[in-house]
Amino acid sequence: MFRFLQKIFRTGPDPARIAAPLWQAVEACQPWLERLAPADRTALRSLALEFLETKVFSGAQDFEPDNFVRLSIALQACLPVLRLGLAAYSGWQGVIVYPDDFVIPRRIVDADGVLHEYEEDALGEAWDGGPVILAWSASREMQEGINVVIHEFAHKLDMLGGEADGEPPLHAGMSVEAWQHALDDAFDDFRDRVDQGEATTLDPYAAEHPAEFFAVCSETFFTEPEILMTSYPEFYRQLSLFYRIDLLEPPGTRETGAHSKI
């Protein structure tokens, strides 16, 4: 089956080369795609095929990603770069897919210089200059405002500026000060709410670090934008400038098609 995919995707990103039932099955599991204008959905399909041409999928724990898995992940991964272009994902190739959550060994030195080693369960992880690792069980679960694939690929965009810190390289014309102000205000408010035990519409994991806040907000921006706009409108507007799309605008009033790259 992997050789079949290679044969298809090596010849170029032509959406018509994928059978309609496969597109329909994959897209039926991604209801947020209904927010896209028809031209953007077509462009996303082409990006997904180009993504599959340039990335190498590997299964872990005896899991073999089939056509459905690869195409599903590719569509979700390409949504954040719909208006940015695949150059934003250059410099690395690997996508490793586990069937379920996996364990990551951690090594942390505390403030007293003591080394702590432990294992952490994870659903996804993005490595700077390395692969994106995903749990397929989490990737296929449709939950409002939650998308592990978008989350990890948002980290990849964040890492374009170095260590993930919630401040990816901004486009010409965007204000670094405006981004930092919107991010800091939203993150501080959200962290305070989580610390106080409030129920939040965003995933509480966003309170862990500004990089996680950016990634969680990116998930919500594409899957349930109303939630983010209601909670943190200024940061929503900054994300709209960064991703060069506003999914709260009626599709007929939006610009469509790829824009200049990061």
UniProtKB/TrEMBL annotation:
Q: Mind telling me which Gene3D superfamilies this protein's record contains?
A: Collagenase (Catalytic Domain), Glucose-regulated metallo-peptidase M90, N-terminal domain
Pfam families named among the record's database cross-references: Peptidase_M90
Per its UniProt record, what CDD domains does this chain match?
Peptidase_M90_mtfA (cd20169)
Under InterPro entries, the record lists: MetalloPept_cat_dom_sf, MtfA_fam, MtfA_N
Q: Where are the transmembrane segments?
A: none
Protein name (database record): M90 family metallopeptidase
